[in-house]
Specification:
CATH architecture of the largest domain: 3-Layer(aba) Sandwich
Number of helices: 14
Radius of gyration: 20 Å
Largest sheet: 9 strands, mixed
Order of helices and strands: EHHHEHEHEHEHEHEHEHEEHEEHEHEHEE
Low-confidence stretches: none
Helix content: 25-40%
Shape: elongated
Structural class: alpha/beta
Number of domains: 2
Number of strands: 16
CATH class of the largest domain: Alpha Beta
Strand order of the largest sheet: 10-9-8-11-13-15-16-14-12
Strand content: 15-25%
């Protein structure tokens, strides 16, 4: 039986990540001014090109919200149900979803981030399943595939696999840009589910033991820091504790660069990190996975781009996490936007979880 799928793209999703804006809602022009390059279309093409031979009846929007993506993916038969205004806005996403529902689609697929997920959910609710191809900055909602290849698997099997109730999160981007995570549960969407292909929601750990574990990790990292070495420190409270233990100010939800006990860049974007690596080629990158989701790269730290990772060298990637976070995070994922680089990370990663303590965790790859 032919499956009918409605597809839409948020063309500006994720543009704020690499340039350090921590989100793109209302910031697309500023992202472009800083040199951001749209990448959501590429993410969508990666997924949809894997489905060009499948028996799917596609409904979509006119460019730049879908029809051009399907054509680039090699899908030449689709129905355009909605023509957006330019520049596109949240109202276009909602109107397109309503058109999909009127057409009787079996599944709504969107490419974007948390803001797009919220707009899709506003229009669709629980009438039909929804699925996100990840292209945003944070993606704390649990309605996304782990990467583009996993999204293709989920779309292909949506009529046969089960669905689960998955959290749609409303993240305050203004607070996030100022270094404060303010997120609330927006609702529960029906989402196709296959283990290791559908991502989980972010968990936040606040127990007293967590704070002690963060201190132990920070002490250990401080002891092994090398002189004349650039340390690129990713987002999160565990990584921020390292910078704070050095007596330096830390950017909780951004990327800092430290060398010889001094901050050489705060809340750095990709361009700044690449320039620093030209000046200081001896470098280490310290990141922590998102709790429960398990993403080491590609969620909330797009400033640490494939270019930055290759320049520093994957052998210089240091992953840290508290024991409680690791206990709730059975698998790790990487979704840098470069599938070849993601594979080079390997099938396991060592994760420092305490003072001179580490665990080896499995890394799951798709595609």
């Amino acid at each position: 039986m032919t499956q009918t799928v409605g597809f839409l793209l948020n063309p500006v999703a994720g543009m704020g990540g690499a340039v350090g804006l921590k989100g793109t809602d209302g910031q697309a022009e500023e992202a472009l001014r800083r040199g951001a390059v749209p990448h959501a279309r590429d993410r969508a093409v990666q997924a949809l090109s894997l489905l060009k031979s499948d028996d799917i009846a596609w409904c979509t929007c006119a460019a730049p919200m879908g029809g051009d993506v399907l054509a680039l993916a090699g899908i030449d038969r689709f129905t355009v149900l909605y023509r957006p205004e330019k520049p596109t806005a949240a109202a276009d996403t909602k109107a397109a979803c309503r058109a999909f529902l009127d057409a009787g689609v079996d599944l709504v697929v969107f490419c974007g981030g948390d803001g797009t997920a919220r707009d899709v959910f506003d229009a669709v609710g629980r009438e039909v399943p929804i699925l996100g191809i990840p292209a945003g900055v944070k993606m704390y909602s649990a309605v996304f595939a782990v990467n583009s290849a996993a999204a293709a698997d989920l779309i292909r099997q949506a009529g046969r696999t089960g669905c689960r109730d998955s959290e749609v999160m409303d993240v305050d981007e203004e607070a996030y840009r100022s270094g404060r995570l303010a997120a609330r549960l927006y609702g529960y969407a029906c989402v196709p589910f296959i283990p290791e292909r559908t991502q989980g929601g972010k968990q936040v750990f606040e127990q007293q033991d967590e704070e002690r574990a963060k201190d132990e990790i920070a002490v250990f990292i401080g002891e092994i820091m090398l002189p004349d070495t650039l340390y690129i420190v990713g987002a999160g409270s565990t990584t921020a504790r390292i910078v704070e233990r050095l007596g330096l100010p830390a950017t909780l939800l951004g990327v800092d660069a430290v060398r010889n006990g001094e901050v050489v860049a705060r809340d750095a974007d990709e361009k700044t990190l690449l320039a620093l690596l030209d000046e200081y080629p001896r470098a280490k990158i310290i990141v922590s996975p998102i709790g429960a989701q398990g993403f080491v790269l590609g969620r909330g730290n797009q400033q640490i781009s494939p270019g930055v990772l290759r320049k520093a060298g994957l052998r210089n990637l240091i992953v840290i996490a508290t024991p409680a976070k690791l206990a709730a995070t059975p698998l790790l994922y990487v979704d840098s936007g470069d599938p070849v680089l993601d594979r080079e990370v390997g099938d396991t990663l060592q994760v420092i979880s305490g003072y001179r303590i580490a665990q080896r965790k499995r890394v799951v790859h798709h595609g």
